[in-house]
């Protein structure tokens, strides 16, 4: 990723199938997302929600709102799909919905900043000759 194009967003079920929305409707992808940024949305102690997650996601993805003809690149897109699902889950738990700005600031920006630092470092290392020498105390451990 070079930072000059939009990112595509999806939501995974418990088996790692990525539900994502575009101009062709909802897709369920078992591959093609190997180089994505994964952002955990559910805490491990939310066992009840984890058990319902797959059914909630499948039911949500079948709604009329996500038919192909409803897609609109700027206003009704993959990000809208993901945020609407997150807000549906939040609503079911009695929590306030998140705005696009809140969702972006709370969940996306911290993870994309970290990924950006990693990618920058990777690009620098890939274009320079280097080698790593362990420190003496590391060699003995």
From TrEMBL:
InterPro entries: MKRN2OS-like (IPR032016), MKRN2OS-like_C (IPR053921). Residues 1-125 form the MKRN2 opposite strand protein-like C-terminal domain. PANTHER family: MKRN2 OPPOSITE STRAND PROTEIN. This is MKROS protein. It comes from Ptilonorhynchus violaceus. The gene is Mkrn2os.
